Amino acid sequence: MIARHLARLSIGVLAAMLVVSFAGRSGVSAQQPAPPPGGQPPQGGQPPRGPPGGPGGRGGFQLRNVQVLKDVPPDQWQLVMQYVAASLGVQCNYCHVMGDNASDDKETKQTARKMMQMVADLNKQFFAGKPAVSCASCHNGHAKPSRTAPLAVNMTQDEAAAAAAARGRRGGGPGGAPGGAPGGAPGGAPGGAPAAAAPGGAPGAAGAPGGGPGRGPAGPPPAPPVTETVDQVLSKYVQALGGQQALQNAKTRVMTGTITNRDLTTANVTVTEKNTGEARIEIATQPNPTIRATNGTAAWQIGGGGGGGFGGGANARDIAGFQVQQGFRLADFALPLNVKQRYQNLTVKSAYETIEGKQAVVLTGSPYPNVTEELAFDRESGLLVRRTVTSGSPGGFGILALGEQIDYSDYRDVSGVKEPFTVKHSTWNAVTTEKFTDVKINAPVADTVFAKPAPQQ
Ligand code: HEC
Ligand code: HEC
Description:
The chain has helices at 2-7, 21-24, 77-88, 107-126, 135-139, 157-169, 230-241, 244-249, 322-327, 335-342, and strands at 252-261, 266-274, 279-283, 290-294, 299-302, 317-318, 344-348, 353-355, 358-368, 371-378, 384-392, 401-414, 417-426, 431-441. The protein is α+β, with helices and mostly antiparallel strands.
């Protein structure tokens, strides 16, 4: 558990997801993300940051000693390293000499390089070149993977009941005396039933433990087959939100509330969207706000770290690629009516999942060529409860597999449309929870809020 916490690179940024802005922007100066705007020092117990300052510092991006990951594009480099660190539950300096990432002085780095080659070979040889295996497959948050299978755990009440039922189906279970000798009095009383010998034998005989320890063979009964189609799931979703017409009539959405980081620091947040794709997320970080916006085509950002100082300066900078993908995942106002346009290869997963104790039907699809997403809908209410996002690398070397999860809850009715008032976004190094206190549908929104501001003098 602790290792898992350590795994998360400490960023302490309210706009935690903005951490990715480092990937494309500052080159990779071998640094962990800079302190947040108005940021807290990292909390006790969490190693603060990686080695300060790499060769050349910010801006100059020169790889000097790359032998395996040759085809990782420069703007992905930071992400790949974040992925590696998170997979092992370590910080950069577990492998790197402080201030000199090109150095091979640490044995762990040499081992890691061999591992990178191993992963490439495994995928090539055994998985038809698909990125099936990566660091997390074995390491799962630990520097040293475990060889032992996980220990058995107690069944839940439901599992225990299912196990008991399965024992019953198998005919009395182990320990059921075959002949039922002691129980059924053969002689019987006059007029007694001839077949008094109960099949299972004496009561109590079935008490012997069956089914093996823990999660033995007598698990829950086989899952029911999924009956819904993609279209059924989507139309139920639209219906649950208030219907096609109500959604079409909702042209803008303005949500205000708070956003809380995993270190429990909180700031105010305002999310402004139009149903035509424009979006702006503004977080009231100090001293400067953190803003990210798109007019539907270009995207820009202010703050969010980087730039060598708190707040990353007050000037807007363009963002692209993964930063845009991740930066606007939560700007999903237009999603309900556009699922089919937004996701390629939509299919229904073959089994139901259980989320927060409730059955969910799950669609999978691909919003970008190297990203897959699962959209989980509460089977009863029809509402979207979770999105699970996996981003791979567009480069040929597929070790990158960054996971994100978005949980939607507390749906409430706003002007005839249901809106989630709580949205939690978890990534490999950040968790943010938005709690909205006010959501307005069709409040007037000027297009200027999405336009990139001119640089300040
Ligand atoms: C588990 C070990 C490991 C961790 C943790 C790790 N790296 Fe690396 N890093 C490597 C290896 C191995 C290479 C060389 C890869 C190759 O040769 O293809 C490398 C290369 C680099 C390089 C290129 C250096 C050069 O000029 O050749 C940079 C920059 C870098 N890492 C930054 C980071 C940052 C930043 C972090 C923390 C987010 C980090 N690394 C975490 C193993 C690691
Ligand atoms: C097929 C399973 C597997 C995969 C995939 C894998 N590793 Fe490992 N890794 C191991 C095993 C096993 C060890 C040895 C642990 C030990 O010594 O007890 C190890 C050890 C390491 C160590 C040395 C840890 C230490 O403290 O001595 C590093 C660093 C490492 N792996 C990095 C990586 C990286 C980076 C990746 C992804 C590119 C990766 N591994 C993928 C199985 C794997």
